[in-house]
Amino acid sequence: MTNLLFFILTPLVVLPIDVSKVADSSKFWLIQDLYDSLLTLGVNVGVTNTVVFVIVLLVLTAVVWLLNVAMGRFSFLFVKDQKLDAKSRVITILMKHGFFKRLFVLIAIAIVVFTCRILFSGFSLGLVTFVLVLSRSVMIIWILLVLFSLLDGWNTFFELHPKTQQKSLKGYIQLMKIIAAVIAIVFILAIIVDKEPSNLILGFGATAAFITLIFKDTILGFVASIQLSFQDMIRPDDWIEMPSKNADGIIVDINLSSVKVQNWDNSVTMIPIYALVTDSFTNWRRMELGPGRLFVRSFNVNLKSVKFADESLLESLSKHSVTGGNYMEFLALAQVSSPDALLTNLALFRAHLELFLRKHPQINDQLMLFVRYQHAISGDGIGIEIYAFSKQKEAAGYDTIHRTVMEYVIASASLFEILLFQSPSGEDLQRITKSRSESLN
Q1: Which of 27, 207, 318, 426 could cross-link with 327 by S-S, CB 3.0 to 4.6 Å?
Q2: Contact 23/123 with Cβ under 8 angstroms?
Q3: What secondary structure letter does DSSP report for 282?
Q4: How far apart are CA 260 and CA 74, in angstroms?
Q5: How far is CA 39 from the centre of its chain?
Q6: What is the secondary structure of 190-236 as a DSSP string?
């Protein structure tokens, strides 16, 4: 794209124009007649030159405006008659980004550039130079704007295409815009100083270090965006978590220098794109696309409540409405690790919880699932950890499932004569104090 811009702009600079020759030649016949008419009225020569020059500029501006309006109207009628197919969608996208409007202005400006030698011949050297430099510079600016519209349209079409919706082209588009703008500035400077662009570029070698310093973030961002894109590390709509930048939310925009993240509290965090390469972050995309979302919950059991299972406990469990339905299943599961003589109420409770999780409709039993004892026994009792994957991955459904699991754990523990450990509260301390005072009395 930038090579195309270079190819288009080169003739505007390299094309030789002898300004003095244009100034010394005779005026266009219609303009000469206007000039002679003003002189016959006794108007001063200098004033006549200025007045005629202004009139020519105004007429030329009016012609350009009329051409722009006419071509804009034609483009509107053309697009209106298009059918809703892929071709018309491209045209609509280009119109949205002002491509045709800018293109028609460019055509009108091109007419000025290639007719100004005729229309402004015979005027003073300074006026001719001013018109030629201004018209060429404006034409380069509008070529750049047309290119920007084309690049923006390309980016929009890329984002709307079903096969590329999960990719971001915005960073590369911004880089191409920067390169194109630099090329356009070089050509405009070449026109102003009347030098070839190649000679001007050679003169920039001494300032390369300074330019590199100015565009340091842009260069770092470009390299980082290539690496992130190649490794498919981030995409728009990914959920990422980056504690070092206080970011935890959805990626809403990726550009050449930064990534915009909308956090769950609706705040927005801007992350320099190279920070995603140098710092660590978590991308939850694989979880969202996968078959389940992991949840881990733990609780502690009071050691004093752990005992061997007796006949009364087994009979109670077999008849209770909550545990009776799958009594034989969790009994067999508990006996795998604890034979009859060593069967404890804690083993039964652990097996029952595991069976409950496997039969829960919103828990994926095809993934890793277990209820295990944590390694150390501490003053808080023995820790038990639940490790399972929820089928619900969005926040609301996910939270509902692990709430349900923990509520079931708390409610069903007493059925197995298990006491869950909790630190003494103020009420517990009052009860102990009251009991001690009563015993002393």
Answers
A1: 318
A2: yes
A3: E
A4: 40
A5: 66
A6: HHHHT--HHHHHHHGGGGHHHHHHHTHHHHHHHHHHHHHHHTT---T
Here the tokens at position 215 are 């565009």
Contact 384, 299 (CB under 8 A): yes
Which tokens belong to 280? 């660590």
Structure confidence at residue 14 (pLDDT): 41
Could you tell me if 390 and 402 are in contact, meaning their C-beta atoms sit under 8 angstroms apart? yes
Residue 274 scores a pLDDT above 80:
yes
Query: Which of 52-61, 89-98, 111-120, 247-256 tops mean pLDDT?
Result: 247-256
Please give the radius of gyration of the chain, using alpha carbons only, rounded to the nearest integer.
Answer: 39
Task: Name residue, tokens 């909550």.
Answer: 322
The span from the CA of 333 to the CA of 366, in Å, is 18
Q: What ranges make up the beta strands (E) of 256-342? A: 258-263, 268-272, 282-283, 293-301
Residue 269 near residue 263, CB atoms below 8 Å? yes
Domains of the chain: 2-212 (no CATH), 225-288 (2.30.30.60), 292-416 (no CATH)
CA end-to-end span of the chain: 96
The type of residue at 350 is R
